[in-house]
Amino acid sequence: MRALIVDHSKVFRTIWQRLVVQAGHEPMTVDNAAAGLAVLSRQPADVVCVSLSLPDGDGISFAREARQLDNGQSVPIILLTSTTDRRIHRRAFEAGITDVHSRTRIEQLFERIRHFVREKDDLLSGRVLYVEDSPTVSRVMIHVMKKMNLEVDHFRSAAAAVDAFDPDLHDLVISDIVVEGDFSGVTLVSRLRENHPDKTELPILAMSAVENEARRVELFRLGVNDFISKPVIMEEARARIGNLIVNKQLFDQVRQQRQQLYEMAMTDPLTGLYNRNSLAEFTRKLESSANRRDMPVSVILIDIDHFKSVNDQHGHLVGDYVLRELGELLSHSCRDEDLAVRFGGEELMLVLPWCPFNDAVRRAEELRERIERLMPAGIALTGSFGVSALTPGHPVELEAALNAADRAVYRAKAQGRNRVEALLPEQALAEEDDVFTIDDDDDALRA
Questions:
Q1: Cα 1 from chain centroid?
Q2: CA torsion angle 429 433 438 441 (round to 10)
Q3: What is the pTM of this model?
Q4: Deepest of 65, 145, 367, 442, by most Cβ within 10 A of its Cβ?
């Protein structure tokens, strides 16, 4: 970091030099405006800090002269003062001051400067869809973006750009408003926004040599995020492009983190299957869809036989491994529309849209055989299966199917385990007075 400090106080300069050296940088300090301007005319700086009060003038006059130098046109200039006078602040910004900071908080100033330098030095990553028919302007803009470490797909016409746009590939769209071809940059913006209305997902930067306030307002109403007037000031373009891409990628990270949190809340961490939270949300949507479309829906409930003995004999780590293997088996047995759920400790479930009752019974039998052949950690396993379904033409209430599948599981266990039993909800209601006796200590007696 190359920070030029222009301040009359020897104490301030000494403290500043110590901070800079400790951070591994080379200090540049002078005590008057003339010396500061001389330094800046000889070599560029990443940032300039200048005191409001100087022996040969003031920081505001210094900034005005610094902006006339080649090395001072785009460098951030921070005015150091303890005054809160708004008139002085206004004069400072009119003279080209970037920011105002208290000169008594040196450590905070140092962190602020590091922020400015970090923004300038950090390389971006991303891809830009760029529409410009002027060879001169496009050559300069592409050079600027490539120096920012950005990939650029350049098109001369808006029509070609629309066809090439990929929301998974492009982080930013930049377009001149007046370009060659069948339609303008305005039409490009309109068409992109029709399909991608969220400005955080697709930022659009418009450019134009036409200084027309009404046209600019129209562009913002159509959905551009920002606007640059031509001729383009390259430092301004760099800043605006960088801001749009960084903001877009930050929003992408937030969306990704939100999705990850949602998946964590809806997924069983051990098996990777969905959990009962997912089941509740999925069944609400499924019931509504099934009732509208007269959709057959089936349920398979699986209870792993004698699973308690696996934990007792081999330990809970082995038991967890067995459950993970079962979860993987179940996931691989699913169609895209199916929902595989860890319903309880060793209870697993499949909810099968567009699957008639007889097909679900067949799938349950196939799963029973696959579990019998699985042998996770060398342990023989079997499962008791309960199958139920909702008949098309009747109001869909998945809870009735779940209860019937649960009852069918206990019928399978009562009849020796490692088998598939099937009950429609109306059959389960007719049997609700029956009692199944199960002969294991780890299983309950259930009506």
A1: 32
A2: 110
A3: 0.56
A4: 145
